[in-house]
Specification:
This protein is mainly α. Helices cover about 75% and strands about 0% of the residues. The longest helix has 30 residues, at about 110-140. The protein binds protoporphyrin IX containing FE.
Length: about 140
């Protein structure tokens, strides 16, 4: 991701700040609609899920300029997801849910450049989480 793309994503995140928990709540709704079987993995009430995700997205998105400083946290979060039963292919479903909800919340403000910047931000974060997921799977197998 280049600096301009990071700025684009951070500005959009600011624009969503009026209702971040609704935004993350809608991501879960879209996720469960796209793949209803994922529902059984979750135990927390929807408000808690939305709060947790909004908080984490805020930390991650405001640190995009210096992702190395929180790299370890994201990789560990990925490893934690192994215990939830998350599989690598689920990250694509979440990406589809995120894309849909960005469209819903930003409307015309979601330009192709902004959509591309979000896509790269997601891939970056998901890539680190997948590293953690793979490490946890390897540890389990050894
Ligand atoms: C960039 C991608 C993701 C981020 C940033 C993320 C973030 C989080 C966070 C912050 C938590 C709460 C952890 C805690 O409070 O201890 C969590 C829990 C969880 N995540 Fe993710 N996650 C991501 C991808 C996924 C994917 C792809 C799935 C599977 C569809 C998933 C399923 C879960 C489940 C099942 C929980 C446990 C919730 C519960 O106990 O009810 N996550 N995630």
């Amino acid at each position: 991701m280049n600096e301009q793309q990071i700025d684009l994503v951070q500005r959009a995140w600011d624009q969503l700040s009026y209702n971040r928990e609704q935004f993350t709540h809608d991501i879960y709704s879209a996720l469960f609609r796209l793949d209803p079987s994922l529902h059984t993995m979750f135990s927390l009430p929807p408000e808690r899920l939305a709060q947790n995700l909004a908080r984490t997205l805020n930390t991650v998105l405001t640190s995009l300029h210096d992702l190395d400083s929180i790299r370890f946290i994201i990789v560990s979060l990925g490893a934690q997801h192994y215990r939830y039963g998350v599989k690598p292919e689920h990250f694509a479903v979440l990406k589809a849910a995120l894309t849909e909800v960005l469209q819903q919340h930003l409307g015309k403000r979601l330009t192709p450049e902004l959509a591309e910047a979000w896509s790269q931000a997601y891939d970056l974060i998901a890539g680190l989480m997948l590293e953690g997921l793979a490490q946890a799977a390897k540890q389990q197998a050894s």
